[in-house]
Design brief:
- This protein is of the alpha/beta class and 200 residues long.
- It has two domains: 71 residues; 99 residues, Arc Repressor Mutant, subunit A (Orthogonal Bundle).
- It contains seven helices and seven strands.
- A four-stranded mixed sheet has the order 3-2-1-4, with helices on both faces. The protein has a three-stranded mixed sheet with strand order 6-5-7.
């Protein structure tokens, strides 16, 4: 556990999937979670920083340049610019293994899904499927580190810390045809499975 050098700040933004909570450390995004999941957010922050208090602006005028930029990029993503969040600076913390898994999530393009086993193979550790799944469930920066793009080997959505309805919404927003997931679909080993909606 590390102690925070700078105060952590909390900014909130409205979205089609409920209010989004953004926590920053002055330089990067350290957490992105959802309304109703404040307990999870605070538990993950406490595990990393110890006893934390979040400074919160009273209105939009109090947002920092970083918070304003984050809200603009996430709003652009939610509005259809699916790569708008790709270069957001993040600082998720975690162990070396966790950091590698979370960074690898950014290599999964929008509209593409990957199984936990495929992600483990991509990381060069095919036997680490459960560890990859556990790490995914601890991802502190939803959407930006797109753990929603990882599904079960049988095509099931499995879990999502923000709730399966949000995972479903994010995948559909990115163009994934969820009806195809109900049928057994597997990518060849080590390859991502693209299920983009397409018109005939």
């Amino acid at each position: 556990m590390t102690q925070s050098c700078k105060p952590l700040r909390l900014a909130k933004m409205a979205s089609p999937i409920g209010e989004i909570l953004l926590v920053t450390d002055g330089q990067a995004l350290v957490s992105l979670d959802y309304e109703g999941y404040e307990t999870r957010l605070m538990r993950l922050l406490a595990k990393r920083y110890g006893n934390v208090e979040l400074e919160q602006p009273s209105d939009i005028e109090g947002f920092t340049a970083l918070e304003t930029d984050l809200i603009a990029r996430i709003s652009a993503y939610l509005g259809g610019d699916l790569t708008a969040v790709d270069s957001i600076p993040v600082n998720p913390g975690g162990t070396k293994f966790q950091a590698n898994v979370w960074q690898a999530l950014r290599s999964i393009p929008p509209g593409t899904i990957m199984s936990y086993g495929e992600l483990a193979r991509q990381l060069g550790n095919p036997n680490a499927v459960r560890a990859v799944g556990t790490t995914n469930s601890l991802n502190p920066i939803s959407i930006v580190l797109p753990c929603h793009r990882v599904i079960g080997a049988n095509g099931s959505l499995t879990g999502y810390a923000g709730g399966l309805d949000r995972k479903r919404w994010l995948l559909e927003h990115e163009g994934v045809n969820l009806a195809q997931l109900k049928q057994p679909q597997r990518a060849s080993q080590g390859h991502q499975l693209s299920l983009l909606n397409s018109t005939p």
